[in-house]
Design brief:
Blueprint: E1 5-10, H1 11-24, E2 29-33, H2 35-39, H3 43-50, E3 55-58, H4 61-69, E4 76-78, H5 87-94, E5 97-100, H6 103-111, E6 118-124, H7 135-146, E7 151-158, H8 170-179, E8 187-188, H9 192-197, E9 207-208, E10 235-247, E11 252-253, E12 259-260, E13 265-270, E14 287-290, E15 293-298, E16 306-309, E17 321-327, E18 333-334, H10 336-342, H11 347-352, E19 360-363
Parallel strand pairs: 1-19, 2-3, 2-9, 3-4, 4-5, 5-6, 6-7, 7-8
Antiparallel strand pairs: 1-10, 10-13, 10-17, 11-12, 13-16, 14-15, 14-17, 15-16, 17-18
Helix pairs in contact: 1-3, 4-5
């Protein structure tokens, strides 16, 4: 039989979370962001849960082709735009909208031979300092684009750097509003944190772009949990206990003997490790669900195994199910944010780092 580990994608939770983002900004249309292979969920697996989106936003042409192959005929947006001039040919053929964030991309458009104008999203760098035109150069970039016969419509966009924190979005929104005053075109503002935390302030946004929230992770954890935002886990990672050990006081567990039993206790060995995508840096005490009951890890995470404390679950043993994150038995859940925080990272990384060797199934 195959190794007893499984990741499950919950399409009902994807649909729920997408609807939750829409409720936060009811006057805006919603992009479902499916970059990074739908945050590790798989575009093809996630698609059924995200079909109620108004459009799909993603990173590269391969992802765009996959969305079109699934039958999607609505808007598809390339969030980083094109990387070389020949990419524009595929944009024309697949009817892709694309971001323009630098002069070189305008040059590519100017040299592109086409009879059909393209929809572009002109990005402003309002403080993130990754992509986009500085405010003092933004209007001149818009003027250049507007003069090109290769461009049919120009939308306006920016990205918030501090929507999840105390600084918020007001400063960047004010700069964006001042810079784009009187410019025509739809506006797209709002990542997950901005959409959930500042939805009422995004009244001037025609589109929002929720990413991580759609996948059940709180964008401002630990200030707020997924439950606080009414987000459901969209990915479950679960494995079975493949061995049980009985320790005496003073016995250690795992490499480096980082956990030493203070008293006699039973531990389970789980068929999951860092080669499966579980974070190696998770210390003793990282939460797990054993047959739906909350417990903890013990000692270091190995390549293929994790030790867990069986003391809270007297009936647990060989073959018991251990939920590493997501949905457990009997309605129990374990947020991926808790595991990520224990490892000093974010839920984004855990989703995207799920290893190819872990079998995946889709649950409606």
């Amino acid at each position: 039989m195959p190794r007893p580990i499984l990741a499950t994608i919950h399409t009902d939770a994807l649909a729920h979370n997408l609807a939750r983002a829409r409720r936060a900004t009811p006057d805006a249309r919603v992009w479902a962001v499916v970059k990074a292979n739908a945050y590790g969920h798989g575009i093809e697996r996630a698609y059924a849960g995200l079909r109620a989106a108004d459009g799909f936003a993603l990173l590269d042409l391969d992802e765009a082709q996959r969305v079109r192959a699934l039958g999607w005929r609505g808007p598809v947006l390339l969030l980083e735009g094109v990387f070389e001039q020949r990419d524009l040919e595929l944009c024309s053929r697949l009817d892709l909208w694309h971001t323009v964030h630098c002069e070189e991309q305008i040059d590519m458009l100017a040299a592109h031979k086409t009879n059909v104008g393209q929809r572009v999203f002109l990005k402003m760098n309002s403080g993130m300092n990754r992509l986009g035109f500085a405010p003092q150069r933004y209007r001149s970039a818009w003027t250049r684009l507007n003069a090109l016969p290769q461009v049919d419509e120009i939308s306006l966009m920016t990205h918030f750097s501090d929507a999840d924190g105390a600084k918020g979005v007001q400063e960047q929104m004010a700069l964006f509003a001042t810079t784009t005053q009187d410019l025509p075109g739809e506006r797209t503002l709002g990542n997950s944190a901005a959409t959930l935390r500042h939805g009422a302030a995004l009244g001037g946004s025609d589109w929002v772009r929720p990413g991580i929230a759609v996948y059940g992770s709180a964008p401002d954890y630990p200030q707020h949990s997924a439950d606080f935002w009414d987000l459901q886990p969209t990915m479950t990672l679960a494995a079975k206990i493949i061995a049980v050990q009985t320790l005496q006081a003073g016995d250690s567990v795992g490499y480096g003997s980082s956990f030493v039993a203070p008293a006699p206790m039973r531990i389970g060995v789980v068929a999951c490790g860092y080669a499966d995508g579980y974070p190696r840096l998770c210390p003793t005490g990282t939460p797990v669900l054993i047959d739906g009951v909350r417990s903890r890890t013990l000692g270091r995470v190995s390549m293929d195994m994790i030790a867990v404390d069986l003391e809270p679950v007297a009936q647990a043993g060989f073959g018991s199910t251990v939920t590493l994150w997501g949905r457990g038995p009997n309605g129990a859940t374990l947020s991926i944010d808790e595991i990520a925080a224990s490892a000093g990272t974010l839920g984004y990384e855990l989703m995207c780092a799920l290893a190819a060797r872990v079998p995946l199934e889709v649950s409606p």
